[in-house]
Amino acid sequence: MAEALTRSAARNIFYGGSLFFFIVFAGLTAHTHLYMLNHSTNAATLTDQVKFGKRVWEKNSCINCHTILGEGAYFAPELGNVWTRYGGRENAEGARAGLKAWIRAQPLNVPGRRVMPKFDLSEDELDALVSFLQWTDSIDTQNWPPTKAG
Fold it and tell me: Which of 3, 43, 85, 101 is spaced 20 to 30 A from 16 at the CA atom?
């Protein structure tokens, strides 16, 4: 056995390793695409109201404080499962009314709590934002967030 790695052996290891990891990468990419084709979000539920709610979310920069499905700032609670936390799966109208009341009641100015600013949203904007949160909660997130509290 040679004491030192020859130049041709090093080259073969490099090319062989590169080819191996390229094949692994291509396989994982194909697997992800096939998984997304079979488990993607139902486009039929993506209504105009949900799209408008997403625009309300973006216009008011909610992501600067909140996370949604793990994306965003961690200053305020995760909102990817807020519909479930408000009981929307059991009582949709109660959850809708509760979320709208919560947003309207801000800021609460409770000592020791973070303060959510007051947003002067119209009734249509509130309905759309809640529809967006409801739609987001229906996405198959593979058990994310890991706790009910977000």
Answer: 3
Reported for 66-69, long-range contacts at CB under 8 A and 24+ positions apart, including other chains, are: 67/150, 68/136, 69/136, 69/139, 69/141, 69/144, 69/145
Q: Hey, where are the domains in the chain?
A: 7-39, 48-137
CATH of segment(s) 48-137: 1.10.760.10
Contact 127, 115 (CB under 8 A): no
Which residues 6+ apart lie within 8 Å of 63 measured at CB? 57, 71, 72, 73
How far CA 55 is from CA of 25, 38, 48, 78, 98, in Å, comes to: 35, 27, 11, 18, 21
Sequential DSSP letters for 22-50:
HHHHHHHHHHHHHHHHHH---GGG--HHH
Which of the 8 DSSP states describes residue 67?
E
Rounded to an integer, what distance in angstroms lies between the CA atom of residue 145 and that of residue 131?
A: 19
Q: What is the pLDDT of residues 15-38, one digit of tens each?
A: 999 999 999 999 999 999 898 887
Is-contact 131 47, C-beta < 8 A?
A: yes
